[in-house]
Amino acid sequence: MLSPACPSRCVVQTQALRLRRGKRRIGCSLILRAVAFASLAGLLHSSDLDHYEALEIDDAAVEADIKKAYRKLSIKYHPDKNPSEAWRFDAIREAYEVLSDPKKRVLYDTGGMETVKQAEQGKVQAGDNIQIEVPVTLADLYRGAQRKARARRRIVCRRCRQRRDPEKCKGCGACPSTFHMQNTLRNNMIYRNRVEVPSKEDCRMETTELDVAVEQGANDKDRVFFKNQASQMPGQIPGDIIVSLKRSDTGNAKFKRVGDDLRFPLEISLREAMLGFKRRIRHLDDHIVEVSSESVTRHGQVIRIGGEGMPVKDTPSAFGDLDLVVSVNFPAQFTENERKEIAGLQALSRFDEDQARSRRDEL
Ligand SMILES: [Zn+2]
Question: How far, in Å, from the CA of 199 to the mean position of ligand 1?
C-alpha cells in the first residue's frame, strides 16, 4: 500500500495525501494508516487535507490552473456521484475559496488556515512594503514596455512545514523570532519584559523577478503595485512590492515631454526659413513624421502637429500634440560679393520698404 520512497514521498494507491498538522515529524506510514482508517470509518474531515493536495495542484499553480483544477475535481467528486466522499468535495470547495483569493492564498501559504481565520477577524498585522525602481526611457513610456524588476524578499517555506525538499530548501532556516511583552511579579513588583518567541516556521531569502508592465503614456515616478508580494512572516499579511518608474534617457534625448505633448527642436537653414523646407522626423517608435513649409518660417516659431504627442494614459486612442520648435541657422558671415548679391535682391528690398512704412514714427 505504501510506496518504497516513503517517507520522502507518501502514496496511497495513486493519490498522495498529506495532513496539515504544523511541524510534526510523525512517520508517514502512521499518518496514512490513520487517514485510510478514518476515511473508511467516514471520519475524515475536509479541513484535514492540505488545500494544494485537495485541488491536486503544485505550489506554483497560477490562477488559471486553480480554476481548471476546481472545475474538474468538483465535477468528479460531486456528492451526487460520490456520496461516500462528500468530505473531499467540501475540501475541494474550501481549498478553492482560499487559493483563488490572492490575499487568502498568501496568508494560507505563510501560516495555514489559522492565519486565514485570524485575518478574517482583523487580527493579522501587515508587513512592510518593498520599494524598488526600474529605469525607463521616454521611448518606453511612448510605446509601452515590459520590464523585469528584481526584489529580494523573505518567504515562509511551505515545503519545510510539510515535506522538506532537499534541493529547494537548501537556504531554509528558522524564520525571524517575534517579540511580545510579558509581566512578571518579583518581590511584589511587576516587571515588564520583552520576550523573544523563536519561530516554529522556516523561512528563506529569495530573489523574485517581477514583470513590470509599463503602460503607454505612463509618467516618470508612476508606481506599479504587486499586492502582498513583499517579505513574508508567519501570521502576517505581507506588504506590497512597489515598483517606481524612473526616467533615465540615453538615446532620443531630443524629444522633451511636456505633459501629454512632446517638443522637438527643428533646425532649418536661412534659405529654408525664407523659401520653405521638407523634413522627415523619426519618432520615438521609429515611425516617420513628415513636416514641410512652402512659405516663410520664423526663428522660434512653433509648428504644432496634432496627435503626434504622447499617448494619453488609460485612453488608448488619444494622443497629445507634437510641437516643433524652429531654430534658424543663420550663416556666421557673408563675403563682400555675397553681401552685394543679397542687397540686390528685389524681394528683400520690397520687404524693407514695407517695414519702413510701418515704422514711420521711428527716428
Ligand atoms: Zn524549505
Answer: 14
